[in-house]
Amino acid sequence: MKEQASRADVDDAAHGESLPGDGFHYPGYIPNEGAAGDKTGELREFKHKLLRINATGGPGNRDPESALLAQMTTPDGMAKVVESGLGGEVFEDPLHGSVFRFALEYWDEHEIVPSLQVLIDEFPGLILKPPRDDDGATGWLIERLAHRRSTNRLQNLMRAAVETMHADPLKAAAEMRRACAQILEEAPRPGDSGIYVDVGAMLDDALPEPPRPEILSRSDGVPLFYPGEVNLLFGDPEHGKTWVALAACAEALNSGQRVLVADLDHNGAAATLHRLLQLGAPKEALRDGDLFRLCEPDGTGDVEHLIGDCATWSPNVVVVDSTGELLPMFDANSDSADDFTRAYNRVLQPLANTGAAVLLIDHLAKNKESRQLGPMGSMAKRRAVGGLCMRVVRERPFAPGDGGAARLLVNKDRHGGVRAHAQTSRGGGDEQLIGTFLLDRENDGTSSWRVTPPQSDSAATAEHTEFRPTALMERASQVIEQNPGKLTRNGIAEQTGGRKRTALSAVDLLAREGYLTSTEERYPRYTSTKPYRQVDDPCSDHYPSGNDHRDQISASDDDL
């Protein structure tokens, strides 16, 4: 004898209470006896297979409808909504449905996302809070609203089935099975929102190749920077970071690719254009607003507008110069991991999401230990970078009319596509030499540049540097030891004596090899970190092992 529900159970069910043995309820459900009761059990079993929807949890307790509308005021949020195919029918509030349709029409017409203020001005009385910085928030909200709509449709279906159950239970069960199957087919499955990777599809189609660098090629054809990633160039002031980044821009423009330079440091449009022309960027490309754009953002509004433009314009290379100006603009502290991550997710990652190789320029810290690790400030910088993290070390000053040279070292390469073509650097350690950036002044007054691979690095730089002046290096070291933090490069050379050009080269060698630190000024002042003495230098005639060991060192360098 099948257990029957009591009248009290039925009354409870009518008010939304659960029936015995049932984890789900709906108002007005009354079980039938006999055959109808059997069909009721079948319906219950079918229902439990359908309703596996979690309506709790998630990012905060905000109204999901208004929260999703706020996310649609960001390029990434709008892109996820459009990609999901979500419709206005998921909104229960008619006002929210109207705002949703307006936002999509605004996106289609203007090719930029509407701001919060645009929506509020268009719909008086609308209350929206700022969008979340969390990358997963939009996907979660899309999935929640879609699941809520599926739940409502199923509940309505069951209510309708109850009304027809007494007349023809078999027909009601068949109709419900068909309608439920359709709802399940249309309902999003966990992971449809993009939160989870569709591993099965990836395995079916064979795993994609790992990201490969494509921007700024060495003379042997090996590229250095990754598209669709943030790449970081760091080093001391005037060591050639911007030159290297702009060389990547010139190369891209010569290939017909799109380039954006965001000059937050306000180096000046004239100076930037002059450098690009020196590096061989074609004038016709610089004139073409569809190929080249240069901006000097003054605030967060300019930066956000820039990000919105890039979402539709899709540049190949984006230079952001520099972190030192970007972070304060967003009230972020360079030493705070949370602050940097917030600015990174708000600005840099959206730019990389357009497919561009983002070249972010940064500086070194003053602290000796920190300088050895990477860029100044929080370690979150190095951790967040998905492309190449490159240290730029000046070999020869970049002087007007005289060119310059800088060694390029791999500090971090998450995908390994660059490090595979690098060699151990002179200083050893964890960083490898990827090549040397050379800027040459030609006889006709023009400039040329190239990035030489490691095996030809010594030969290439030898054309541009004096012999190793170990005697002047020792004298310069002694001058700095006696005047810590007081003398500029020229001041040290004057007190060192000898030919000034050779003395300046001696100072540069000491700085490059870690004997000196410098202040972050236009004309930096130097302090000794350790004394240099010829007797400790294997490349010096005064080294105890003599010339044979020095020759071995030279041969080793030539092999790089």
UniProtKB/TrEMBL annotation:
Residues 1-15 have a biased composition (Basic and acidic residues). This is AAA family ATPase. It comes from Mycobacteroides chelonae (Mycobacterium chelonae). InterPro entries: P-loop_NTPase. Residues 1-38, 444-464, 519-560 are annotated as: Disordered. Pfam families: AAA_25 (PF13481). It comes from the Bacteria. Residues 445-459 have a biased composition (Polar residues). SUPFAM superfamilies: P-loop containing nucleoside triphosphate hydrolases. The lineage of its organism: Bacteria, Bacillati, Actinomycetota, Actinomycetes, Mycobacteriales.
